[in-house]
Amino acid sequence: MDFEANLAVARAAHVAGARRAGLVSAMGADAKSRIFYNRVKGETEDALARLQFEGLVIARPSLLVGDRVALHQPERLGEKVAMVVSSFLGQLIPVNYRPIAAANVARALLTRVPTAQGRVVMLSREMQV
Fold first, then answer.
1. From the CB of residue 125, how many other CB atoms can be counted at a distance below 10 Å?
2. 86-109 pLDDT tens trace
3. Is 23 helix (H, G, I), strand (E, B) or coil?
4. 3 and 41 in contact (C-beta within 8 Å)?
5. Residues in a beta bridge with 84
6. What's residue 71's pLDDT?
């Protein structure tokens, strides 16, 4: 979750002539949120929108799951607990709140970004396979 890094990459892409961009944000992203994480994600979305890409696709997944070891990221206790709970509750959890594979989010962005017009927000249900 790095506002400056995301913005720097988007600016560089825009300057290099990119007409469209994709961003992995978060469910609940809102620049006016009292929750720091959601606020920064929302501010990042708004900053990228101000760059005026022809198309900007914002993915707002729920809990991302994937191989954190390969990315040299530690597993987080909260994520482990959420995975255990969701495995028991399964279909009782609304689709937008179920954990989603990072690969599904990437696939959805790769599919949607090339033809995007304006600002498009994808929620988890639109990225589930």
1. 13
2. 676 777 777 777 788 889 999 999
3. strand
4. no
5. none
6. 60
Q: Are strands 64-65 and 20-24 parallel, antiparallel or unpaired?
A: unpaired
Percent residues over pLDDT 90 in the chain:
64
Q: How far is Cα 67 from Cα 48, in angstroms, rounded to an integer?
A: 28
Token pair, residue 89, equals 């509750």
For the chain, give the mean pLDDT: 88
3's CB contacts (< 8 A; 6+ apart) are 40, 43, 44, 47
Between CA 41 and CA 20 the distance in angstroms is 19
The DSSP code for 17 is: T
Q: State how far Cα 116 lies from the chain centre.
A: 16
Closest CA to 127 of 98, 111, 105, 112: 105
Token pair of 42, please?
């929302």
CB 122 within 8 A of CB 57: yes
Sorted by where each starts, the structural domains of the chain and their CATH numbers stand as 3-123 (3.40.50.720)
d(CA 81, CA 84): 5
